C-alpha cells in the first residue's frame, strides 16, 4: 500500500560500557509483515527494540518509521514490553492498564472518559479478556497478563507493533490466540515485530525473520532466510563467524 | 478529664490545636506521597533524605543567620535533593548498589551536619537551640505560622497529585512504556521526587529525622491492604496519616512526658498491624479464616462423596455405612464423626437406628453434582 | 598526646575495625540499610534491659540490646514473607516503631538518667576515658575499649572460622543450601554479630557513625578489588584511617568527633570512587577518551568492509555522506577518517573511503572480537 518501509534501521550500534551489544545492524521491514527476531541469549534482541523506540541510547545508526524519526511517529507505534518488567502487585485493574494505552493520545491533564473506556473494552474483547476488565491485575495468570499488555498496545491502533518475548511462560492456548490476533493485524497491512525465544515455532507463526547475534545475520522472508546456514551463523558461537559475511542481503 | 472538656481544650488550647493540626497535615502529605514512594520501591529514600537534610538546615542558618522555618526548609530541601543526586550518580557510575549508596548518603551527610551543628554551637547567641527540633522533631514547638505554611504546601501537594494523577500512575507502574508513548518520564520523576522532599522536610519538624521514614511508609503500607484501587489507596493513606498525626498529638498532650513524634509513630504502626492482620482480602487473619473455611468445605464434600461411592459400590444409595468404613476410605487427618454430624445438620445425611449413616435425597443429589463437577475441573 | 587522647583513638580504631568486618557482608548482600535499622532499634533493647538490671554497665544490657537487633531483622523477614509488604518498606516500618517505643520508655520512666536521645544519635567519644573497667581494684582501661575489643575479637574469630561458609552463603545461597549449609543460620549469625557490634559501638559513637563505619569503608574497598579477603582487609584499613583522620579533624575544628569521623568515611569513599584504578571515575574517563576514538575507528572500518563486500560501497562509503549513514556528527567523522588515514587503514579514492589491505585485515579481526 505504501512504498515507504514501515521500519528502516541503518547501521544501528549500541554499546554498554564500551562493549558492543548491537553492531552495525541493518533492518528493513515493509508493511503487512509478521516478523520474528531471534538469536541466542545476549544477542541484543531486546536492545534492538529498545533502541528503535528510543528507550536506550545508541552509539550510532538511524531509525526511520515510515520515513520519519520515531519521535515524530510515536502515535503509529505500539509497544508491548516484557511481562517481567512490571510489578503485577500494583493496585490497578485490567481496564485501567489498557486505558494507559490512550494516555499518549490524551496528553497531559485530560482524563480518560467514556470514549476511552469503550475503546479499551473493545481492545480487551479482541484479546478475549473483556470479562476480566475489573479484575485486579495481581489475580491474573501469565497468559492473561500478556493479553492485557497486548490490549494496551492494540488500543493505540498503531501501524507498527513491537512485542518483547510475549510467549515466555504463557500457556499454549494463549499463545495461539495471540498469534491469531497478530496475523489479523498483518492482514490489515500492519507490521508486527516480535522478539521470540523459540526458534522451533518460527516457520509456523511468522512470515519474516531477523536473525540477530550482536550483528544482523539475516533479515527477510522466512522461507528465504530461515536456513540452516544462517541458524548456524547466529547460534553457532561467535567464532564461527569468520571473515566471511553472510551473503544474504536483501538490498 | 471529661469528654466535653477535652474537646473544648482541643479547640481552645493553642498548643494542642496547633500541634494536632500540624501533625494531621503532615500525615496527609506524607501519606499521599508515601503511597507513590512505596509503590516505586523508594521507601528508604525517605529515610536517607531526612538524614541528608541536616547539613542543609545547618548551612542555611549559617549563611543567612535566620531561623525562620521557610529558610531552613529550603536548605533542607536542597540538601535532600543533592543527596538524591549523589545516590543516583553513585549507582549509575559504579558497581555500588542502591542500598549502600543510600546508607552512605544518610550517614555521611548527617555526620557532616553534626559537624556544622557543633560549629553553630560555638556561635555567640546560643544558636543551636532551635535547630535541634529538626533532629528529634519537637512538635510542641510548632507555631501557628508553621501550620499555615504546612497547610498551604499540603494543599499544593494534594492538588499536584490530583492533576497529575494518571501521569504519576503510569510513572509508578510502567515508566518504560510511558517513555515509549512519549511521556516526559524524567520530568515527572523529578517532580514527584521534589514533592517527596518537600513532604519530608515538613515532617522533620514534627517527628524528627529517625521517624520520618515511618510517616512515609506506614500509612501507605496500611492503605495497600484495604484496596486494589490506586486512588482509594492514596486517599486511605492520607487519611491514616492524618489520623495518626492527630491522635499522636492528642495522646502526647494527655500523658505526661510523652513525646509527640514517637506517639504518632506508635499509632500509625498500630494501624499497619491491624491492617495487615484484619483487612478483608489481604489480611492474614482473614486468609486464615478463609483457608479454614475452604478446608472445612473440602472435608465435607469429600466425606459426602465417599459415602456416595460406598453406596454405589453396593448398588444401593440407601445402603447405610458405619463411620469407621468411611474413615478407612478417606484421608485420616480429619474427624469423620464431626463431619458426618455437620452433614447431618445440613440435611445431607442421616443416621439410622443402628447408628449407621446414609445419604438423604438432598445428599444424593449433591453428591451427584460433585461428581459431575469433578470431571470438568480444568477451566482457566 | 595525652593518655586520654590515645585511649579515645584506640577505641575509635577498634570500633571502626569491628564495624567494617560485618559491614563487608552487608554491602555484598545488599543489606546495607539493615545496619541503619538495627542501630536505631537497639535503643529499645538497651532501655528494657536497663529497666531490668538497673545497671548501665551490665553485660546483660549489651546482650539484651543485641537481641533487639536480631528481633528487628526477624520482624522484617516475617513481614517480607507475608508477601504483603515489600522488603524496603518492611525495614522502614519496623525500626521506627521499636525506636519510638524506646524513646517513649525513656521519656516517661527514666527522666534524667544518662540515657538521653541526644547521645543515642550522637554518642560521645570524648567521655570514653572516664568510664573505666575496674576489677579487683585494677584499672583495665576504658570500658568501651574493652567491650569493643572483645566484640572485634569475636567478629574476627567468626569470619576466620567460617570464612568459606560465609563466602558461599553470601554469593550463592542456593549452592550453600545444596551443600547442606543452612543459609538461614549463617544469616542470623551474621545479624547477631552485626547487632552486637552496633550495640557495643553505640555508646561510644552513636547510631549514625555505626552506619557510616559499616557501609562506607566496605563500599570504598568494593571498588578496589574483586577478592573477598582483600575487601575485608581494605575495609578495615579504610575504617581505621577514617577514624583517626576524623579524630584529628575534630580536634582541629573543635567539632563533634563522631560527625567528623562519619564525614571522613564519606571522603574516603569519594576518593575511592574517583581514583580507583579501573573502576574509578578518572580511570573510566581516561579510558573513554582514547577508547571512544578507537571504538569509532573499529566501527567505521567494519562498516566500510561490510558495504564493500555487499557491493554498495558507492552509496554507503562516500566520505561526504558518511554522517548520514552512521549518524555521527561531521566533526567526529573527520577525526576518525584522519586517524584511519594516519594509521594506514584507509584512503580516500574519488570521494569514497576505501580500506587498505591492512585496514581490511584490521576490520576482519575486529569482527571476530565481537
The total count of strands of chain A amounts to: 9
* Radius of gyration over C-alpha positions of chain A, nearest whole angstrom: 18 Å
Report how far the terminal alpha carbons of chain C are from each other.
61 Å
Q: Output the structural class of chain C.
A: mainly alpha
Number of domains of chain C: 2
The count of strands of chain C amounts to 4
Residues in helices of chain C, as a percent range: over 70%
Largest sheet of chain A: 6 strands, mixed
Q: What percentage of amino acids of chain A are in beta strands?
A: 15-25%
Strand order of the largest sheet of chain C: 1-2
Mean pLDDT of chain A: 86
Helix content of chain A: 25-40%
Written description of the protein model:
- The complex is a heterotrimer of chains A (251), B (380) and C (370).
- Chain A is of the alpha/beta class and 251 residues long.
- In chain A, 30% of the residues lie in helices and 24% in strands.
- Chain A has helices at residues 45-52, 94-99, 103-106, 114-126, 142-154, 172-187, 202-205, 222-225, 228-235; strands spanning 7-16, 19-29, 33-38, 60-65, 77-80, 160-164, 191-195, 208-213, 215-221.
- By secondary structure, chain B is mostly helical.
- Chain B folds into 2 domains: 10-278, ABC transporter involved in vitamin B12 uptake, BtuC (Orthogonal Bundle), CATH 1.10.3470; 286-373, Arc Repressor Mutant, subunit A.
- Chain B is elongated, with a radius of gyration of 30 Å.
- Residues 376-380 of chain B have low confidence and may be disordered.
- Chain C has 370 residues and is mainly α.
- Chain C is built from 16 helices and 4 strands.
- Chain C has a two-stranded antiparallel sheet.
- Classes of the chains: A alpha/beta (251), B mainly alpha (380), C mainly alpha (370).
- Chains in contact: A-B, A-C, B-C.
- Chains B and C meet through helix 3, helix 5, helix 10 and helix 12 of B and helix 2, helix 4, helix 5, helix 9 and helix 11 of C.
Which characteristics define this entry?
heterotrimer; A: alpha/beta; six-stranded mixed β-sheet; three-stranded antiparallel β-sheet; disordered C terminus; B: 380 residues; mainly alpha; Arc Repressor Mutant, subunit A; 78% helix
Amino acid at each position: 500500500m505504501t512504498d515507504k518501509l514501515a521500519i528502516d534501521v541503518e547501521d544501528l550500534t549500541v554499546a554498554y560500557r564500551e562493549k558492543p551489544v548491537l553492531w552495525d545492524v541493518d533492518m528493513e521491514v515493509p508493511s503487512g509483515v509478521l516478523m520474528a527476531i531471534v538469536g541466542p541469549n545476549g544477542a541484543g534482541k531486546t536492545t534492538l527494540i529498545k533502541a528503535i523506540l528510543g528507550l536506550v541510547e545508541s552509539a550510532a545508526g538511524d531509525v526511520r518509521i515510515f520515513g520519519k524519526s520515531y519521535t515524530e511517529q510515536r502515535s503509529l507505534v505500539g509497544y508491548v514490553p516484557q511481562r517481567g518488567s512490571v510489578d503485577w502487585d500494583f493496585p490497578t485493574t485490567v481496564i485501567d492498564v489498557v486505558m494507559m494505552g490512550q494516555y499518549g493520545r490524551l496528553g497531559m491533564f485530560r482524563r480518560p472518559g467514556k470514549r476511552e473506556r469503550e475503546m479499551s473494552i473493545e481492545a480487551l474483547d479482541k484479546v478475549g479478556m473483556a470479562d476480566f476488565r475489573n479484575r485486579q491485575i495481581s489475580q491474573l495468570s501469565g497468559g492473561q497478563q500478556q493479553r492485557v499488555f497486548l490490549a494496551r498496545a492494540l488500543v493505540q491502533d498503531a501501524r507498527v507493533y513491537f512485542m518483547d518475548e510475549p510467549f515466555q511462560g504463557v500457556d499454549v492456548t494463549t499463545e495461539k490466540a495471540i498469534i491469531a490476533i497478530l496475523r489479523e493485524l498483518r492482514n490489515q497491512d500492519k507490521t508486527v515485530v516480535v522478539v521470540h525465544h523459540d526458534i522451533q515455532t518460527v516457520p509456523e507463526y511468522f512470515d519474516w525473520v531477523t536473525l540477530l547475534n550482536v550483528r544482523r545475520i539475516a533479515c527477510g522472508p522466512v522461507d528465504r532466510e530461515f536456513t540452516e546456514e544462517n541458524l548456524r551463523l547466529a547460534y553457532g558461537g561467535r567464532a564461527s563467524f569468520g571473515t566471511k559475511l553472510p551473503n544474504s542481503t536483501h538490498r | 478529664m471529661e469528654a466535653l472538656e477535652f474537646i473544648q481544650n482541643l479547640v481552645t488550647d493553642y498548643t494542642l490545636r496547633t500541634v494536632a493540626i500540624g501533625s494531621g497535615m503532615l500525615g496527609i502529605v506524607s501519606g499521599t506521597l508515601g503511597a507513590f514512594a512505596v509503590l516505586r520501591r523508594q521507601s528508604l529514600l525517605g529515610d536517607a533524605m531526612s538524614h541528608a537534610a541536616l547539613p542543609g538546615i545547618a548551612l542555611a542558618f549559617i549563611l543567612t543567620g535566620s531561623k525562620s522555618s521557610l529558610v531552613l526548609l529550603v536548605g533542607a530541601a536542597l540538601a535532600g535533593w543533592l543527596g538524591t543526586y549523589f545516590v543516583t550518580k553513585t549507582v549509575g557510575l559504579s558497581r555500588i548498589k542502591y542500598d549502600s549508596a543510600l546508607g552512605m548518603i544518610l550517614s555521611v551527610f548527617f555526620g557532616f551536619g553534626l559537624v556544622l551543628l557543633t560549629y553553630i554551637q560555638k556561635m555567640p547567641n546560643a544558636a543551636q537551640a532551635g535547630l535541634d527540633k529538626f533532629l528529634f522533631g519537637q512538635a510542641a514547638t510548632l507555631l501557628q505560622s508553621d501550620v499555615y505554611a504546612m497547610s498551604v504546601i499540603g494543599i499544593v501537594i494534594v492538588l499536584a497529585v490530583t492533576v497529575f494523577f494518571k501521569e504519576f500512575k503510569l510513572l509508578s507502574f510502567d515508566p518504560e512504556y510511558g517513555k515509549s508513548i512519549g511521556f516526559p518520564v524524567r520530568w515527572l520523576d523529578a517532580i514527584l521526587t521534589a514533592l517527596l522532599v518537600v513532604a519530608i522536610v515538613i515532617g522533620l519538624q514534627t517527628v524528627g529525622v529517625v521517624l520520618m521514614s515511618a510517616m512515609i511508609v506506614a500509612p501507605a503500607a496500611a492503605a495497600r491492604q484495604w484496596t486494589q484501587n490506586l486512588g482509594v489507596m492514596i486517599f486511605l493513606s492520607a487519611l491514616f496519616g492524618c489520623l495518626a498525626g492527630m491522635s499522636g498529638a492528642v495522646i502526647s498532650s494527655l500523658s505526661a512526658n510523652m513525646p509527640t513524634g514517637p506517639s504518632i509513630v506508635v499509632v500509625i504502626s498500630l494501624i499497619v498491624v491491624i491492617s495487615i492482620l484484619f483487612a478483608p482480602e489481604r489480611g492474614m487473619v482473614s486468609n486464615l479464616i478463609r483457608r479454614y473455611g475452604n478446608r472445612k468445605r473440602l472435608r465435607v464434600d469429600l466425606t459426602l462423596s465417599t459415602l456416595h461411592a460406598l453406596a454405589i459400590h453396593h448398588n444401593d444409595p440407601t445402603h447405610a455405612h458405619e463411620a469407621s468404613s468411611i474413615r478407612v476410605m478417606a484421608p485420616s487427618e480429619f474427624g469423620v464423626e464431626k463431619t458426618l454430624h455437620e452433614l447431618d445438620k445440613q440435611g445431607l445425611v442421616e443416621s439410622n437406628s443402628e447408628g449407621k449413616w446414609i445419604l438423604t435425597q438432598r445428599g444424593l443429589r449433591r453428591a451427584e453434582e460433585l461428581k459431575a463437577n469433578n470431571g470438568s475441573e480444568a477451566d482457566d | 598526646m595525652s593518655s586520654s587522647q590515645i585511649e579515645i583513638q584506640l577505641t575509635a580504631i577498634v570500633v571502626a575495625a569491628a564495624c567494617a568486618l560485618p559491614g563487608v557482608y552487608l554491602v555484598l548482600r545488599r543489606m546495607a540499610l539493615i545496619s541503619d535499622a538495627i542501630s536505631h532499634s537497639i535503643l529499645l533493647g538497651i532501655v528494657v534491659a536497663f529497666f531490668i538490671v538497673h545497671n548501665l554497665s551490665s553485660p546483660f544490657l549489651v546482650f539484651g540490646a543485641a537481641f533487639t537487633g536480631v528481633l528487628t531483622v526477624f520482624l522484617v523477614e516475617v513481614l517480607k514473607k507475608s508477601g504483603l509488604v515489600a522488603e524496603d518498606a518492611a525495614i522502614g516500618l519496623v525500626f521506627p516503631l521499636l525506636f519510638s517505643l524506646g524513646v517513649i520508655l525513656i521519656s516517661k520512666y527514666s527522666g534524667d538518667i544518662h540515657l538521653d536521645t541526644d547521645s543515642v544519635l550522637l554518642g560521645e567519644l570524648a567521655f570514653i576515658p572516664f568510664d573505666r573497667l575496674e576489677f579487683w581494684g585494677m584499672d583495665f582501661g576504658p570500658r568501651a575499649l574493652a567491650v569493643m575489643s572483645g566484640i572485634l575479637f569475636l567478629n574476627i574469630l567468626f569470619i576466620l572460622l567460617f570464612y568459606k561458609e560465609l563466602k558461599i552463603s553470601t554469593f550463592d545461597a542456593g549452592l550453600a543450601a545444596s551443600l547442606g549449609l543452612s543459609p538461614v543460620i549463617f544469616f542470623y549469625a551474621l545479624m547477631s554479630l552485626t547487632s552486637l557490634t552496633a550495640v557495643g559501638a553505640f555508646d561510644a559513637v552513636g547510631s549514625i557513625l555505626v552506619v557510616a563505619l559499616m557501609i562506607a569503608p566496605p563500599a570504598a574497598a568494593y571498588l578496589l578489588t574483586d577478592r573477598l579477603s582483600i575487601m575485608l582487609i581494605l575495609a578495615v584499613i579504610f575504617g581505621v584511617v577514617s577514624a583517626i583522620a576524623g579524630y584529628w579533624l575534630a580536634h582541629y575544628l573543635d567539632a563533634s568527633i563522631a560527625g567528623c569521623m562519619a564525614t571522613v568515611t564519606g571522603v574516603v569513599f569519594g576518593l575511592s570512587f574517583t581514583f580507583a584504578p579501573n573502576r574509578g571515575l578518572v580511570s573510566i574517563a581516561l579510558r573513554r577518551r582514547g577508547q571512544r576514538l578507537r571504538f569509532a575507528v573499529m566501527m567505521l572500518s567494519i562498516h566500510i568492509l561490510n558495504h564493500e563486500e555487499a557491493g554498495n560501497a558507492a552509496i554507503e562509503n562516500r566520505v561526504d555522506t558518511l554522517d548520514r549513514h552512521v549518524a555521527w556528527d561531521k566533526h567526529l567523522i573527520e577525526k576518525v577518517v584522519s586517524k584511519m588515514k594516519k594509521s594506514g587503514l584507509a584512503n580516500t579514492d574519488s570521494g569514497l573511503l576505501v580500506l587498505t589491505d591492512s585496514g581490511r585485515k584490521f576490520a576482519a579481526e575486529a569482527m571476530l572480537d565481537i
